User: What shape does this take?
Amino acid sequence: MMVETKTKSHLFTELQKQGIRDEKVLEAMDAIPREKFILPAFKDKAYANAALPIEKGQTISQPYIVAFMTEQLKITQKMKVLEIGTGSGYQAAILSKLCRRVFTVERHLQLLKAAEERFKKLHLYNITTLFGDGMRGWAEQAPFERIMVTAAAESIPEKLVDQLEHNGVMILPVGRQTGVQPLVRITRTNNHFEEEELIPTRFVPLLPGIDHNGD
Assistant: This one.
């Protein structure tokens, strides 16, 4: 137990040195045990500041990227947030500590079922899940004050932008899989959209359609 605590503490010190300043974001990350979201073979790396592989060829993002993307959204407790790409469920769990409700969409049935079990075990009851095509968003629940996309789109998906509330913010990596993908923050003001590039990243691709294979 002492080893795990020291490791988590070291990670948070590293995140602060990298520029993460929002105490609420750090508190949310402290409240969510990352080791519950990774494969058993990587338990000793739970608090390493690195991305790790999960099932279906996907990854759990580097803690710095999780913290940075979350911080850049400037989430408040009253907000409704859409996440595209549930994956392990770690990012949705972090978001759930900061907002009123998280709606998260995953195209891999196996990943979604595993994430739902983690949410139940951790008593995260303000997360609503959908097995579906993330590129379509979740129109029935729109609009959203915030949208986070955890996979790289080759271009900004119009359907997701359309589901943003006025003055809403979306953050997502944009670019081809073969190169660096800038993290882009989009702010909707009336009928206009402002785009701002933040930092270079590398994410798995945002793909259309769904994968029914739960094996």
Remarks:
- Confidence is low (pLDDT under 50) at residues 1-6.
- The CA atoms of residues 49 and 63 lie 5 Å apart.
- The radius of gyration is 16 Å.
- The first helix runs from residue 2 to 17.
